[in-house]
Specification:
alpha+beta; Ribosomal Protein L22, Chain A; 3-stranded antiparallel sheet; 5 helices
């Protein structure tokens, strides 16, 4: 049974500007060290950062909760085959357990100007 669906789209230049203006403070506030490391290996890390930002927002929308979730508590990880998934931190895991989330599905994409993420949560 589907618990929730979330989608978010992010202008890649918005993330590029945030990184340029706020630097490490922005990266540390929004992303986990593993996410930053993964993205910074790219020729242009900003599309990957934007896709992860969109995934965090999509996850929050799919949960349909009023509780505040730190963005760093929602981590995007990649399998060896390149499939993205959400690795919940402590707060997110507690909320997912409370509402009986049994599984999650994540799709990421980015193109010249935009990054998009789609999340489906199973109950």
């Amino acid at each position: 049974m589907i618990h929730g669906v979330g989608v978010d789209i992010v202008d890649i230049d918005r993330i590029r500007n945030s990184v340029s203006h706020f630097g490490e403070d922005f990266l540390e506030r929004v992303f986990t060290p593993s996410e930053v490391e993964y993205c910074m290996k790219r020729k242009d890390p900003h599309p990957s950062l934007a896709a992860r930002f969109a995934a965090k927002e999509a996850m929050i929308k799919a949960l349909t909760t009023d509780e505040s979730i730190p963005l760093r508590d929602i981590e995007v990880v990649m399998s060896d085959t390149g499939k993205p998934s959400i690795k919940p931190g402590i707060k997110l895991k507690e909320i997912m357990d409370t509402v009986s989330i049994k599984g999650s599905h994540l799709s990421l994409s980015h193109e010249k100007r935009y990054a998009v993420a789609y999340v489906i949560l199973e109950a």
